[in-house]
Design goal:
43% of the residues are buried. Strand 13 and strand 14 form a beta hairpin. The model has no long low-confidence stretch (mean pLDDT 95). With 332 residues, the protein is of the alpha+beta class. The chain folds into two domains: 197 residues, Probable tRNA modification gtpase trme, domain 1 (Gyrase A, domain 2), CATH 3.30.1360.120; 79 residues, Elongation Factor Tu (Ef-tu), domain 3. It is built from ten helices and 17 strands.
Length: 332
């Protein structure tokens, strides 16, 4: 059940999210940027110290192996990605190093990661940092990062946008994470349970790899191309398929991720089939009862003939209306 108190904290104050579902990989060496440039969909070579981006790692057929965030820390690059995809990604990145001076290290168990989200996130985090005022944290650009001590312990702070509310991720050595969480609680940060965090994410229309995206998904189907793909960089794995769809197919894909609002009292489960006039036209991927809208909502894939907002589809006899994403925008 969604927690009203935790939801309110994330929307109007600050709430923390356990990021144990994330894997962490360090890429070091002087060729790290040029190496990743040929593998990932975004412009990694353009990153400078303190910068970052969202990207995807694709198969040659344009299907997703994972989505990930890339942070240039100045001497290494930090990749964060779904933990379920981490082993495959780390192994393939290591396998494809030939003459490049680059090294791959899985640091998932070395570091812990805690998100603090909400309009007061920067202000409360600055109270546990040693030297960084909240104005500097507020000024971090999208995917920006910095290194700073937290109670005299080394830490990395990154700007995030994948939780449904603007916020920051804090990375610390794993033995220190309990102390970090205790310090955050002491300055008023509320723990955000997984169900409530899911409601925020779905309301924001943010697809989750492993649920709304998987290894059969082309990024264009999930609608992440504007955030994840550079259309001006050089070649990367899977680019040929993406370019073919965009230019020959004019960006049209067979299905696309959309939002649905239901007229019934409950949200249908993941995998529920969607129909239109006895025709199967898609399926639900994520769903919740929206605290903001007080209605069941879902992310779902629909056939391209049913994508227009206002279109009606059915699931188990209940009516659903296609809705533009996000359902709810971030709070100021």
């Amino acid at each position: 059940m969604v927690s009203a108190d935790a939801f309110r904290a994330a929307r109007s104050g600050a709430a923390s999210i356990d990021r144990s579902d994330r894997g962490r990989v360090l890429v070091s060496g002087p060729d790290r940027a040029s190496y990743l440039q040929g593998l990932l969909t975004n412009d990694i070579a353009a990153l400078r110290a303190g910068g970052g981006c969202y990207a995807a790692y694709l198969t040659p057929q344009g299907r997703m192996i994972a989505d990930l965030f890339v942070y240039e820390l100045g001497d290494v690059m930090l990749l964060t990605l779904p933990r379920t995809a981490k082993d495959r990604v780390a192994a393939q990145l290591d396998q494809f190093i030939f003459t490049e001076e680059a090294k791959i290290d899985d640091v998932t168990e070395t570091f812990a990661q805690v998100a603090v989200v909400g309009p007061q996130a920067a202000k409360v985090i600055s109270r546990v940092l040693s030297d960084v005022p909240h104005t500097i944290l507020d000024a971090l650009p999208e995917h920006g990062n910095l290194r700073t001590p937290v109670a005299d312990q080394p830490a990395i702070v990154t700007r995030i946008d994948d939780t449904g509310e603007p916020g920051l991720d804090i990375y610390v050595a794993r033995p220190f994470v309990a102390s970090l969480r205790s310090q955050l609680a002491a300055v008023g940060v509320v723990d955000l349970d997984l169900e409530t965090a899911e409601a925020l994410r779905i309301e924001a229309g943010i697809p989750l790899f492993g649920r709304d995206m998987n290894q059969d998904t082309i990024p264009l189907e999930a609608g992440i191309e504007a955030r994840a793909i550079s259309f001006s960089k050089g070649c990367y794995v899977g680019q040929e398929v993406i370019v073919r769809v965009l230019h020959r197919g004019h960006g049209r894909v067979a299905r696309k991720l959309v939002g649905l609002i239901f007229d019934g009292p409950t949200a249908p489960p993941s995998g529920a089939l969607l129909r239109a006039e006895d025709r199967e036209v898609g399926h639900v991927t994520s769903s919740t009862v929206s605290p903001a809208l007080a209605k069941p909502i879902a992310l779902a894939y629909l056939h391209r003939d049913f994508l227009t907002p206002g279109t009606s589809v059915e699931v188990d006899g209940s009516l659903a209306i296609v809705t533009a994403l996000p359902f709810v925008g971030p709070q100021a």
